[in-house]
Every structure is written in structure tokens, then in C-alpha cells.
Design brief:
- Helix 40 packs across helix 41.
- The strands form two sheets. The protein has a three-stranded antiparallel sheet. A two-stranded antiparallel sheet has the order 3-4.
- The two termini are 39 Å apart.
- It has 57 helices and five strands.
- InterPro entries: Ankyrin_rpt (IPR002110), Ankyrin_rpt-contain_sf (IPR036770), Ion_trans_dom (IPR005821), TRP_cation_channel (IPR052076).
- It comes from Pocillopora meandrina.
Amino acid sequence: MAASPGSMYQKQVLKKRPTSYLQSSLGSLSKSDRYKEKDISLNSNPPGSPEIQRSNISLRKFSQISAHSDASEADENHADTNGNSTKQTGTPKNAIRAKHHQKAGKGNKIQKLHHAALSGNEAEVQKLLGKGVDINAPDSVGKTPLHNAILGKHLNIVDLLLKSGADVKCLDERGDTPLHAAVRVDSEAIVVLLLKDGKTNTNAKGFGSYTPLHIAAQMDCVDICKRLVEHEGDIAQAAEDKMTPFGFAIAKGAQAVSEYFAGIVKEKDMNLEGLLYNVDNEGSTLLHLAVDSGILPIVGLSLKLGSNVRQTKESDNSTALHLACSQGSLEIVQLLTNEIRDICKEEIIDEQGMFPIHRAAMNNHFTVVNFLLDQGAEADPRDIEGQTPLFLAASVGGTETVQLLMDRGADVTLKDMELRSALHVAIGNTSTMDALMKSPSSKSLVVDKDATGYTPVHYAARAGCLEHIILFISKNKAAEQVTSDSLDTPLHIVSRYGWLEIAQRLLKKRNVRIINVQNNQGKTPLHLACHEGHEQIAKLLLMEGATIERDHHDRTPLHLAATKGSEECVEYILETHPGSLNAIDKYQNTALNLAATAGHASLVTYLLSVKEQEILLNSQNQNVLDLAISNDKEAVAMAIIEHPRWKEVMDSAGGGGVSQIQTLVEKMPEVAERVLDQCVDQEGDSSSKDFKVTYDLRLIQGKQNSFTSSLEHSLDALKTMAERRRENCLTHPVCYVLMNIKWKKFGWITFIVNLSLYLAFLLPFTGLAVYLKANSLELCGYKFENMTKHRTGYYEHTWDWHDDDSITCNGSQKTVVVLHYVVIVFALIHLTKEIVQIIRQRLKYWTAITNYIEWVIYVSALVFVFPICACKAHYKSEAAAFSLFFAWLNLVLYFRRFSYYGKYVIMLLTMFKTLFQVLLLFFLFVVAFGTTFYLLMYNKSNFDTLEYALMKTFAMTLGELNYESDFIPDIKLHYPLASNVMFVFFSLAMPIILMNMLIGLAVGDIDKIQQKSVMDRYVMQVELLLELEESLPQWILKRMQIDKYEEFPNRKSKLQTRLYEKIIGFGKAESKGEDDGVPPAMAQIIDRVMEQDAKIDEIYAMMKEQSEILKAIGRRQGVEDTASNRKSIIGWFLKKH
């Protein structure tokens, strides 16, 4: 909607008029308008009541240059009295003042001079001047001693400073000269004294380019003006805003100065064109300024000078008569119309198409309106928006003007460009509406629609104006049932906005004909009341016979109440229409589903508690819990799980895709943990022998596919827990029981088979390699060449070492041949397993480092055993060595499956990872010292090559220092001093600092590693069970499927069971509080949080108690505490006070 002329004009007026004057001028229009408190959307609700924001007056805000009689205030502020910020001019004098300002801080003498000049201490001024203090030095705001003496009105000191050579042209920071200051303090004597100085410039421009004459004119100092004019002061000199001293005097109502200036104009026969027209930067005339002053003689003076009443202002094309009508000054209007007798009959309009009568009417100046009508003004002229004076008067609540215009024949039925009548815009003004409705023509206007399709009745209903509704119905019975273009009745509107009293009036005498009317969206008033949560309105409608209808989305009021979260509306509907409980909308959602989607946990709990409530799936195959999860409503999900019908909800979930428990584990782990808690049922006394714990394992295994009966994904929930590292879920007793059952049924058997197969490969391979090496002399035919006795006492045998090409294969021993075949067979079996894993896992297979190790083991073993012979080549012995090394290490990894050893194996692997992370740092230290020792001790046998030097350095790091043989100075140690110095550095850095750092790192991480190892073991166990389930056929899985498990924890287990659990069992369930002690620092934080939580609860309880007290007070005072009638205790309090 385009901005109305009234609103544009009001913005213009607000911009121009000082606040204090504007408040006094517009005081009559400060009525509260309840209609402005709410907004109405354009699609299905009536828009807000049309507001014609017009001003009473067209005013001008001029620069106010007020006198500073208080010298100290002038010293501190020096700000523009019209509110503008201080400016710096770019003149050369400014640069000089800045230089003086820098010198001002060099001593206290200049400051003393300023203070003495301001306070009037003439003797001190003479003393300081006698000492040679700079007479023109500025203070902190750029004022010279002369400025300050003038501000203090000390004539003698001013005279003394002038005689001592003070510069009368010096400018302060605002750009004002001493003459400006003298005029401001209204001291004619000082002005005369300054003017006697031949250097004084009477027309010097100060702040805003105002001259001293500007200031004197606006202060109405006629004597000073005369002095200035006598010294060539120019009354026509324009400032930055084009204002002349003459214009200033007129605008400020300075009558004496204005008359004096007018006399000068006539005396000098000055050009009137520049003085009367375009006198400011908005293109006003002098007559506009005179009318703006509000002083009748000033207006008369302007007219005598020849001002043209028809001349318009350039900015808005308004005349002085428009402005006078806006102000409401009847005398000024009469004076202006006397100049041109028939001006009221002429078509004088501004840029908004308004006549002077429009301006008067929109500001409720009924006396002016009456005068204009008497002068022949038309009663119903239209502006560019088609608005008449009556329309504008009605929009601002101008009852007197409305009544006057109606009495003078104004047409009430005229509408603006948006088809609004005066009734549309008078909403909220009771007296104005009463006046309008007295006209017989207003009866039909009650049900007339504007361009948006709404009638005055709809606007009144939206604003909650009960008086208007009663008045409309009394004048036109059709007002009760009138519909808008969107088919909304007044009852629709009051139901949407919660006006209970109006709804009661509309339904008086059981007017059920309108109670179930549907708008263009298919919504009844009950729909709208429930959608906004107006419980009392909904209750009233239901009591009056409202039925449950469906809108165009097949939603009932119950659906909308559930979406809003209004539990009271839901209760009222179910009390009267219980059959609507399970109604579904266009997307097959029930009210329960919509409440969950909107996140109303308490309402979901209430609906689930209704026995007749069905758990239905919507068109997306989602039930109430699915919707809560997908919309991230954790509170709703928790409320569902804690409800007695939680299992029914989860059982109703649609099959296929990701299960609910998986989604909960991923998005809401706390809710998933609560689901697991619900799957545990305890019976009997916990200390009794017959105490029984029952675990429901159906939910955690997901729903079985009804079409394929597939059981392949029964561990997907555990898989998600492992992937997301949900420790509280994965270590829950329910998960432990499920994994333990799976382990007992097929896990341990598979594990034992795999372990047996691996040992069947490893033990023969180890035995074969050791046997062949131990009997290599005999099997390969090596011969001793010599025997050397070492100084340590042992003998070193040296035999004839043949080349690989000269070795002859000897396969005569059957044991050796059998062991070869055993190793070959089991190595191939294991390689086949690896190939099968590659096919099944694909790229995932290559992400595990253990798979690479196993390939090294089996390939190296095959290299060793082929061809089958007793005497092996040297590279085969190396292959066997590496293969056995990795094979026995791989056996350690098998121990991860044991409940007792698993934790420690995982801890060991974690520490190895930590070691590898710092290995680069360790290697750099070894290289640093190794190369140094090689260069300094190359003639020593342990350091004669770089490789040996690095290995020796590594050995020394572990403690093998051998100081006596390597570092004691002798003939072979060429650099004894440097070598020993480096040895000291090495001893400090490597064995002491670095090794202790590694040990400390390992010890420091041991607690974290131990805590993490439990989770890692569970994750590893889940992965193992997943691999096994994927590899087992369906018929085996079906036999091993279990839905419920019962145990008696207080009964003593059988011996064989205890042995099984001890050796290859899954282990005991990890207690949450058994090993995971809370650190002291964290415990303190938790305690503080609990304290704050308790305080918050106390504050909440106190506020609730105070709220109840206020409600009780309100009820005693007759104030209803409901959301429907939009009243509150605060509103009552404000009303009372």
C-alpha cells in the first residue's frame, strides 16, 4: 500500500517541529487506540485499521542559537544549541588555533589567564599579561581569553585585553568570533566595545555560517541589531540553510527586531524577492515562517511587506494557509483569508492533493473547519487518495469535526481509493463512531467491504471493540453474519484474536447459524480458536453447539489444538466430541502425531493416556515416535518412552529401513538408554534367592521383515552403538545380555574353531622352523672349519657356509615332510579365509592393519616351506623368522576375545599407538646424537660406520652406555673433550629426560586407556558377532533367535558354567559406577551445578507462588485471568494507576 498523504505530511512535520512544541500542538490527538495493538495478515485476516498519520501543523525546525548566560556551561559544552554536532572549519585560522592549542598545555600560566578572564579577576589578568603570557592562546575548546571574558560579561577585562592587542578575529572550535559570543550573552556594551575595534568584522560567519546579526535577530535583541546594522550588518546575508537575519527574526517571532528590519527594508528599498521567497533550504516563503511562528503581528507584518498568500513552498507545494489550518490558529487563518476574499473557494492543493480544510480536519480544528466552510470551502473535496475531510477527521478521532462536517452536509458514504469509508478508519474511537452512525446513510456502510474484502464489523471484531459491534448490530442486523472476501465472519475474527465478550455477544440467543460457517480455507471459528490456543473461546463455541468440521487439509479443530499445544482445548473437544480423537488429516496424521511434531510433550502424554487413542502411521509410514525423532523433539521422545504405552508405540513402528532404536542411538542417546532401561523387568526382593530379572530383547534386535523373515540385521542397533561410541548404551545390561547370548550360542564356537585352525598352523610351523634350524648341520651337511676361544671363555664354532645354489634338498625324514604339508595346508586355508573376507568386506578389508599382518604371515610361511626339503636357503630362514614373529604377535590379538585378557590386550595396543606417535621425535634425537658420535669417534669399532653409530646410540638410550670402553680417553679417542661433553648431553637428554617422558606419558594415559579399553572390547565384540551373523545361514540364525531372557542373579551358578565363564565366557557386565570414578575437579563442578539447579527451582517456586497471589488479587478485583480476553493483572494494575 502506498504511503498516505497524511503519513507523508506527518513525517515532514515531525522532522521540522521541535518536540516540545509538537507535543503541545498534538496533545488533543494522544488518545489510545486499541486497534493498533494487533496486526491482521492480508490472506485470511482483516488488515489493521487504516491509520491516517497526519499532523496538526506544518512546522519548521530552525537552528536555535540560544544565549549562554552561564559561562561555565558555555565553557564545557560549546555545542550547537539546535542539536547539531560541532564542526571544524578548514580555514587557515583553524590551523593556527590548533597550533596554539598544542602550546596551551605547556604551562599553567595560560590556564590561569583563561580562568582569570572568565571569573573577572582583572588584577590577575594584568599580572599575567605583564609576564608575557600569550593573549591569544586558546583553551581546551579553542576559546581565547577574550572569548572567556565576554562569556563572563566582564567589560573591563574585555577592554583591557583589547588594549593589550587581543585578536578580535580569533575563532573558537565552533568557528565563532568574540562578537558572536558578545551577542549570545546579550551584552550591548561589549558589542559596542568590540565594534569600536577597527578589525572587527560585523558580518563574520560563525557556526553554520550564522553572523552575529543572525543571533541577535533570533534573540529579539533590537538594540544590538541596531548597533550591528549601524556597522554595516547585512540583514539579507544568508547562512548555510539560506536563512537571513530577517528570516530568523520572523521565524522566531522576534517582533521588535522584525519591525526594525522591515523598516530598514522600506528605507533602503531593498529587493523583496530574495527576502520574501525561497528563504530557507526547503523553499519556504517569509509568510510560511511568519505563520510558523504563531504570532499574529508577525504574520501581519509579512503581509504588509507584500507576501503572496498563494505562493507555495517548494518542498511540499503547500501554502501558508495550509500551514495555518494545520496549526489551528483561527485568527491567522482569518487574517490570511482577508487578504484574498475568495481564496477558500479556490482549488489550492498541496502535493498530496489536500485543501486547507483537509489540514484543519485531520487535526480536529473544528473552529477553523467551520470558518472555512463559512467562507465557501467545499465540504467534501478529495485528496490524491480520495480521502475527504470527514474521512481524515474520523481517522484521528476528531468527533467535533466529524459532527460539524455532517451537520454542514458532508457525505458519510464517500470512500477513499481503497474503498474504505469513514467507518473503517474510525474503529477504536467510540464517540466518533457514535457520531457517524447517527447518519442514516451509515447503515449500509456497516457491511460495505474495502479493497481487502473486510467490513467495519471485521475491523471492530479484530480490535476487540465491543461497543462498535453492539452499535453495528443495532443499526444493521446483517452485521452478525457478514462475510469477508475470504468468507470470514466476525465470529471467525474474534475467535482468532480471542475476544471472549464479543464472541458471547455474537452468539447471544444461540445464533448457531454462524457458529459452524467455514471460510475459504474450510476453517470454522472453532478451528481458529484452537489454532491460536484461546481455550475460553473454544469452550464457549463447543457449549453453543459447534461441530467438528474438516478444513481443506482435512484437519479438525483437534488437530489445530494439538499443533498449538493447548491441552485445555483438546480436553474440551474430547469431552464434547470424543469420536474425533483418531481423526486423520490429509497426510494421515492424528492429533497425537501433530502434537509430537510440534514438540508438546505434556500433550502427547495426555493423549497417550486416553484409552481410545490409537497409534497410527501417517502417509510417510511414521508413528508418533518417528515424528518426534525426525523433528528433534527429544522431550517428546522421552515422554513417549516413559509412558506405560511405550512398548505399544515402538511395536507399531513401520518395518524396513533403519529401526527406531538405531535412530534413537544416533540422535537421542539418552532416550535410547531409557528404552533399554524399560526393557529390564525385575521381580521379587533384590536380596532374595528367587529375585528374577527379565530382559526383553525384541526391540534392540529390530523388527523382523514380515515379507522375507530376514534375521540378518538383528545386531544393527549394537552396530550403531559401536559406530557412534555410545558407551552408556553399549555397556547397558540389555546389550550385554544380548551379546552374551549370541556369544554362547555361536560366538565362542566360532572363536574356538578359528583359534584351533590358527594354532594348527602356528605350532607345526614353529616346530618345523626350530627343528630345521637346530639340525641344520646334520640336514645340510655343513662341516666345521675351526674353533676359536674368546677371552670371555666360550668357543665360537665356524663351519663351512655354502651358497644357496649349492644346497641340496634332502626330504628323507618323514616328520619334516609331514610338517611341511601341514603348514602348507593350513596356510592355504587361512589365505582362503582372507580372500573370502576381501570379497565380503571389499574396501573395508584394507582399512585394518591386522589383515596386512596375516598376509605377511602366511605368504612368508609358504616362501619358507616351498620347496619341501630339510635344508633351507638363508632368505627362507629370514622369511620364517619374520613370519613367526608376526604370527605369535597375531596370537596375542586373539586373546582380545577373552573377557579377562581382552582389556589388557587393548590397553597394550593403545600404548603401542602412543609410542608410534612419538617415534618420529625419538628418531630425530637418535639421529642427532648418532651422527655426532660417528664424526667424533669413527675410529672406535662401535662407531666406525654411520649405521653402527645409530644402532649403538639406540642401545645406549636403553641403558647400554659402556663408558669405560668407548669414552675414557685413550689413543683411539681423537676428540676426548668433545666426545665426553656430548656424552653428558646424551645422558641427560636420552636415558633420563626422553625415556622418563615416554614412561610418564604411558603412565599418565593408563587411566584413560583403561576406561577406553572396556568400550573398545565391547565394540570389538560387536564387530565379531556382526561378522559371524553375516556369514551364518538363515536357518541357523532362526534357531538361535531369542526374544526374552530370564536370569536369577542371586542363585549360585553350576560349576561347569563358572568354568566356562572363567575360560572363554563373555565376562561380567561392566558396572557404570564400578571403575569410572569421577575426578575431584569434575565432582566439584557437578556439585556447583546441582546447587544452582536447586536455587533455580526455589526461584521458580517463588515466582509461581507470586503469580498465584496476583491471580487471586485479580479475581477479587474482577479481572479474569484468561488468555482469551487478552486481559492481565499487569493491564489491570496500569489501568488502576
